[in-house]
Amino acid sequence: MRRFNLFVQNDPDYLKGNVRGGESFDYYYKTPADRDAQKRTPITDGRGEVWLHRAKDIWGWWSNSHRIRRKGRQGAHTAWQGEMKPIWFTELGCPAVDQGANQPNVFPADRSSEGAVPYFSNGTRDDHTQTSYLKAMTEFYAEPAHNPISKTYGAPMLAQEQIYLWAWDARPFPVFPYRTDVWRDGVNWHKGHWLNGRYASAPLTPLLQALAGDTVLLTQGVSGVVDGYALRGVSTAAADMEPLMRAFAMDAIGGQKHMRVVGRTNRAVREVRVEDVLHRPNGDSGWVRKITAPEKLPRRFDVHYFDAESDYGAAYASARDGAGEQPVAHLNLPVAMTASSATRLAARLLYEARTESEALSLRLPPSYLDLEIGDIFTFAEADEKTLWRVLEITYGTALEVQARCFQPGLYGAQGEEESPANLPQSLGQISLPVLRWLDIPAPALRYHANAVAGVPLLACFAAPWPGQINLEPEGLRALSLHTPSQLGETKSVLKAGPVGRWDRGTQVEVELYAGTLAAAEPLDVLSGEHRLALETPKGWEIIQFAKAELIGTRRYSLTGLLRGQFGSDAKMAEALQAGASLVVLSDAQVPLAAARYRADAKRFAMSIARSFQMPKTQKPNGRSRRLGVDLDPPQS
């Protein structure tokens, strides 16, 4: 019997067993290569103070006297006496990322000195890892056997009331982390140590036990958390748990009184031998393999759920295989979850449905009575490399087993980046947007992911950003803007400058409505970074800058300029006055894709202005920097 390599690190017994054991206690890795090969070197001392070298051995450090060591030799005792004072945990935390317990001190963050992913992590968000780690640590030290009483002060080694979980943030959830225009570290919340907004989430095991009611429930290999679960009407425990079983890849074994729920990771793989298969009473073969026709397989999978990041409103996520829309499969999931989690779930269910297009029927003897629903096996006669999962067993004089093709890789973390959530609409009012129409030269468009030569770009800004702004120009295709552009205006006069070389003697002051600017290396600027579009009486001049000095609130002095870039030199003004509009060029701008915009530019611009849709539950607060829709058609 073998296992496929998907270890469930969130197992509480495994985690507790490594609090006072494992790496940094029993052994260490000399090199990264040793870690990859799991070559472990025992931690030893030779002078009876092995605890001195164990980073996790707080028992040894607390219970022994300490001596100064110089060049490995033991010297005089320090003032510390064993069991002298209680220990405090001033920061006990774990990142909400895959394999977070491997290195609880690190998390994915570009600007942090400890920004990294833990050993063997794929970098995906995993709230259950964080919850399991904290639960294991607090429960471990709550046991008297692991928290001895001091003979000196008569209290436990670790003061339970002095365990401080890391980190509770004073900034209110959900304004933090979703207001990234106010707090830039909001993007780190998704996989970081923060407990706000997720520590109250329910781990699957206690949730299943609550749903089971009087049914005795055992779980094995179950991992995951949910932000909420909706019960509708009176139903059985099995019916209440069924959506969770499908969403979190679990199999239920048993009946009304006793049930065992097993996850699909770290499962044993057994072999079904072809010589054991029984012929059917009519003499036919005891095994049949069937493959569903490709045209009958779903090409799209929709998951309907409650959006935990947007007032728990009804939402859906879709996954497509890129070859059409039909047939469509769907799952109505009464679970509150994030949009990114729902998207990953839809993708997994789509590929699961396509993987399970291969079915296997077997007629087996009573010697296979230990075979259960959810068991994984191989059957060399069909394909020695294929894994099969048992879906149904009918008992009689023989076992009639129905199985489907199984891919264990579908049930590991997918490695997809967590997208920052939209700001829930109930958090506040919004302002009318500022819109900018940019008709810029084709050479500048090559830096935009979705731009089309000859088609203008639309930039949009609102504070606060409502999450999405929809535009429906009259008679033209609707537009959706999901990301705000960085807009602003000049604060000093900018005179005409040289083209095709650095302008090191000119500086221009600008102010952004939101966001920041930063300096860049000259080579990065020459590679296309730090592009600004300045609106002049002639159109839009594109400049680049190498240096940005902060001189006030969102106000910068820009030097090291490149003027009239990407064919925009004809739009340069002799003296561009203060107050001119600017746009930081990025993929936040959306191409208008209107074939006839030049023929009637003014009507098209006003059509866009009238089509702006304000969410019905909100009203403009009138505090934006500019009110109304400020949109000018391109210059002809």
How is this structure best described in words?
- The strands form eleven sheets. Strands 1-14-20-21-22-19-15 form a seven-stranded mixed beta sheet.
- With 636 residues, the protein is α+β, with helices and mostly antiparallel strands.
- A hairpin with a 5-residue loop joins strand 16 (300-307) and strand 17.
- The chain starts with a strand and ends in a 25-residue tail after the last helix.
- The protein is globular and about 95 Å long.
- The model is unreliable at 1-7 and 594-636 (pLDDT under 50).
- It has twelve helices and 35 strands.
Topology overview:
Blueprint: E1 2-3, H1 12-17, E2 27-28, H2 32-37, E3 41-42, H3 58-63, E4 67-70, E5 73-77, E6 87-92, H4 127-142, E7 158-165, H5 175-178, E8 202-203, H6 204-212, E9 216-220, E10 225-226, E11 228-229, H7 237-247, E12 250-254, E13 258-263, E14 268-271, E15 287-291, E16 300-307, E17 313-320, E18 328-337, H8 339-355, E19 358-364, E20 376-379, H9 380-383, E21 384-395, E22 399-406, E23 434-438, H10 442-445, E24 457-461, E25 469-471, E26 479-481, E27 486-490, E28 494-495, E29 508-512, H11 522-526, E30 531-536, E31 539-552, E32 555-562, E33 575-576, E34 581-584, E35 590-591, H12 601-611
Parallel strand pairs: 6-7, 9-13, 14-20, 16-18
Antiparallel strand pairs: 1-14, 2-3, 4-5, 8-10, 11-18, 12-13, 15-19, 16-17, 19-22, 20-21, 21-22, 23-24, 24-35, 25-26, 27-29, 27-34, 28-33, 29-32, 30-31, 30-34, 31-32
